[in-house]
């Protein structure tokens, strides 16, 4: 049965202008409902697919207690995914169909999770880079969201993501202090840093944020969020002596990317082409998905599909 959002666009804008939160379908217009469903789906899918991605790398944990820490993070990610899907269920979305009956390529999450994490180095870097990206994005939503149920739920998510970040940074500091570990860490950072730059999507000159900002689904643009992420990551990597292709430009008062961006990427070999390409080519790669897309989704749907 099709769910009908009863408010007009003008009524929703007046509601928001009065400083009120949207608490459910009764406060939504069809356009607001469509937008909040989309951003919740991206968030929930990202949290869900991180679980098999992190579990794959957790098998390389150096000790059993380290494996336990990784599994604890994975449990958090599954709980975060449940929050998003549960809210979508309240908004009339068929949750079982959304989670278990979609084709793998229809899931909506950053391309980075389609590239396999094959070592403990890559897992702790994912905590330091990917979870930092998630923290930046969800903190923005937490501060700006006009959808009350999600805004309140993200207070818990923010605290748990802080633990994931601390786990990643603690290990990165430890590995960076040892020449052999540092060399292996740097090799992983070389492909993972640029891939996380892509996480925030198209540049503002290509992206039309209109309804997302007007309705308060997010507070900052893609480029502003990318700057926030570099503001956390670049100084930290400088502090521990790891090289990243970005620096803070004092004159421009912003972070500058020091490599061709975007550029061609081989997901199987985890190698960048080194030559700048257009965003249309990046979009083609994103839509085609990467090496682990079908494997991860099949793992998540296995119990349901039998």
TrEMBL record:
InterPro entries: Aromatic_CoA_ox/epox, Ferritin-like, Ferritin-like_SF, PaaA_PaaC. Pfam families: PaaA_PaaC. GO terms for biological process: phenylacetate catabolic process. Gene3D superfamilies: 1.20.1260.10. GO terms for cellular component: cytosol. This is Ring-1,2-phenylacetyl-CoA epoxidase subunit PaaA. It comes from Solirubrobacter pauli. The lineage of its organism: Bacteria, Bacillati, Actinomycetota, Thermoleophilia, Solirubrobacterales.
């Amino acid at each position: 049965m099709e769910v009908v959002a009863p408010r007009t666009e003008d009524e929703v804008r007046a509601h928001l202008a009065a400083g009120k939160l949207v608490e459910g379908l009764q406060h939504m217009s069809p356009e607001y409902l469509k937008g909040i469903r989309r951003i919740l789906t991206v968030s929930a899918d990202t949290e869900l697919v991180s679980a098999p991605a992190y579990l794959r790398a957790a098998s390389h944990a150096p000790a059993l207690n380290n494996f336990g820490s990784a599994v604890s993070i994975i449990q958090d990610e599954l709980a975060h995914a449940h929050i998003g899907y549960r809210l979508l269920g309240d908004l009339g979305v068929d949750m079982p169909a959304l989670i278990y009956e979609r084709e793998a390529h229809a899931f909506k999450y950053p391309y980075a999770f389609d590239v396999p994490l094959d070592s403990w180095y890559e897992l702790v870097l994912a905590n330091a880079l990917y979870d930092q990206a998630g923290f930046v994005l969800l903190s923005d939503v937490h501060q700006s969201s006009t959808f009350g149920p999600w805004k309140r739920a993200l207070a818990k998510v923010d605290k748990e993501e802080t633990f994931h970040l601390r786990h990643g940074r603690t290990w990165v500091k430890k590995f960076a202090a040892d020449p052999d570990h540092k060399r292996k860490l740097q090799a992983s950072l070389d492909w993972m840093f640029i891939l996380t730059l892509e996480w925030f999507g198209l540049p503002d000159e290509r992206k039309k944020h209109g309804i997302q900002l007007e309705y308060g689904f997010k507070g900052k643009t893609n480029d502003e969020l990318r700057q926030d992420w570099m503001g956390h990551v670049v100084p930290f990597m400088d502090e521990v002596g790891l090289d990243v292709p970005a620096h803070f430009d004092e004159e421009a008062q912003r972070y500058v990317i020091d490599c061709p961006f975007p550029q061609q990427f081989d997901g199987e070999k985890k190698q960048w082409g080194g030559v700048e390409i257009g965003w249309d080519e990046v979009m083609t790669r994103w839509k085609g998905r990467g090496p682990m897309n079908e494997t991860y989704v099949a793992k998540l749907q296995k119990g349901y599909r039998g």
